[in-house]
Amino acid sequence: MDYRRFFEDAIDQLHAEKRYRVFANLERIVGKFPRALWRSSEATREITVWCSNDYLGMGQHPKVIAAMHDASSRMGSGAGGTRNISGNNHPLVELEAELADLHDKEAGLVFTSGFVSNEASISTIARLLPNCLILSDELNHASMIEGVKRSGAEKRIFRHNDLAHLEELLKAAGRERAKLIVFESIYSMDGDIAPIGAIADLAEKYNAMTYIDEVHAVGMYGERGGGITDREGLSHRIDIIEGTLAKAFGTLGGYITGPKSVIDAVRSYAPGFIFTTALPPVIAAASTESIRHLKVSQEERRLHQQQAQLTKHVLAQANLPVMPSETHIVPIHVGDPELCKKASDRLLEKHGIYIQPINYPTVPRGTERLRVTPTPFHTNELIVELKDALVEVWTALGIPFSKDSTPVPESNNRVITLAVSKAGG
Ligand SMILES: Cc1ncc(COP(=O)(O)O)c(C=O)c1O
Question: Which of 9, 20, 273, 401 has its CA 20 to 30 A from that of 71?
Answer without folding.
Answer: 273
